[in-house]
Amino acid sequence: xxxxxxxxxxxxHLEQVSxxxxxxxxxxxxxxxxxxxxxxGEFLALLGSSGSGKSTLLNLMAGLDRPTSGAIHxxxxxxxxxxxxxxxxxxxxxxxxxxxxFNLLPRMTLEENVELPLRLAEVERGERATRVxxxxxxxxxxxxxGHRPSELSGGEQQRTAIARAxxxxxxxxxxxxxxxxxxxxxxxxIMNLLREIQSAGMTIVxxxxxxxxxxxxxxxxxxxxxxxxxxxxxxxxxxGAQ
Amino acid sequence: MKLRDMxxxxxxxxxxxxxxxxxxxxxxxxxxxxxxAMLSLGVGLQQLANSRLTKSGLxxxxxxxxxxxxxxxGGGPPATRQPAAKARPLDADARAEIARLPDVIEVYPQIRFxxxxxxxxxxxxxxxxxxxxxxxxxxxxxxMQGSFFSSATAExxxxxxxxxxxxxxxxxxxxxxxxxxxxxxxxxxxGKDLVLRYAERQALPAEGGDGGGxxxxxxxxxxxxxxxxxxxxxxxxxxxxxxxxxRLLIPxxxxxxxxxxxxxxxxxxLRDTPSDKPSYASLTVRVKSPSQVDxxxxxxxxxxxxxxxxxxxxxxxxxxFSVFDLxxxxxxxxxxxxxxxxxxxxxxxxxxxxxxxxxxxxxxGAADSDVRQLFFxxxxxxxxxxxLLGVFFxxxxxxxxxxxxxxxxxxxxxxxxxxxxxxWWLFAGAIGFAVFVSLVAGLYPASRAAKLNPVDALRYE
Lengths: 242, 461
Known about the structure:
The structure holds two protein chains of two kinds. Chain A is an alpha/beta fold. Helices cover 33% and strands 28% of the residues of chain A.
């Protein structure tokens, strides 16, 4: 497991990050003064109860949201200082995102869904076909390329979403409750897939509320509560990843 | 994102809400169709008027008179005009000189004289006019019975229908009112001969008998046998630049060889400007195109003749049609303006429905500009499709109007016309305008879509 003290710069480094929302006249601190370092190649699980701020923190790491204060360093830059266009480029090239509800575009085939980030990145057509094939091979869905999401099972849809997140060859994979909509067996398959992807050198930050899964597959757990980072600890690996 | 990818995505998105987008596109098509139909009508009528007027020779012609004879605009009332001491005669030499001017394609005199014809042994008083060969394409002889002169020197005549009625004794005009009566009249006249009786002008030597001067002319009665080859209903254009009003039309070359005495012969003698060469009361000068009229007119004036053209009237006509087209365009655009509201509505609905999709696109790396452009392209595709369809519908409306008009004209026994035309600029302009209007309509929805917060959009159920 990589450690925070390794010589290489971390994949993500958060410095006293806060995200505050105005709610009428009062302010809600969804993320409150969080400092966290995610070394390259680590599989970090963000745990916490509902409303603890873990998804907000993930959105901040993804550049989908901006911190009210603090700094988020990723890919050598402070995301808080980037323009909207630079943040879009960061999302396009540096990270891949996986969602609880898969978020595949229903009218597109599986292949077209996976191809979408490549279109946004203006990758040439010939190159796109190769990369889509590779990504789908990796999640073992290369035989269902012409199907629409509604024709796939939940697990297959999530595998497609993972292929879509990986197709632009990002450095960091951010997963928001990737097993939340799946049964336990399928969830385990997805976790095995993520672990496999991590073993190829990918940094993974996963939001989950399923501690046992996190313990088994992640390298480190970060526990959040009321917007604060309560503790970080190495995972126990009690069940062992397959 | 590249434009090609953007367009593919936009078309795919539009296909998903097929019914709604088709109806919106149809709205644009109806708007464009009304615009195109209106403008094509304006353009068609303008082209029709231009072609008729151009064929009539009114706008590419200059009417030339001797300076002292100008009674056209600019000449002023007779009492205020200064009589020219020695005005240059408008004779054969002058005609040849004018014909040599650049851009001049034809110079011909207006030969018109009052005389008598005999048909079936009965005398009829009428006016004879010489028709140049070019008058065949003037449109004045469209739909005539029989045929035009077989050659420029053929001893043939075309009768104006009023004269034809007199010759056949149909003075009430009953026979000419229905097609079968006209056919009967044609059969009774075409191919038959009539005798033209006229006064030929013969020059006399000057008094004193030295043989070198010109002593006026005598008038000798002559006869000419002419074969009737056609009957024309309209009176071929008279007045400036026209062919002169006449009820018996003969080839101009034949009319010239007659050397028939005309009114100006007597005038020349009285004004002490006689010549043994025949002079003309007026000449009609035709140039290659109306744009050359001004320059040629100025040159003719420099030569010492009076000249007048109807080009100013042509300019007024163009201004009139420009204003007419503008008004038609404004009325036609109203439907398109309504259609733009449809586009705005459709795209705003699409944003609501595709809120989550916009969030996903942003999470995958789409910039605000990508989302904006995507909606913009969708609006543009609807505009382009609607424009294309609208031009087709507009063309159909134009055809239908032309068909209806021609059915009506045929019932009136008049030749058909094309009252609607879609030139390339109208075709391209209508589609371009539809795309432009659609893009303007897409501005607000596209901007709204681009500004969506991706976190909120991803949460949207």
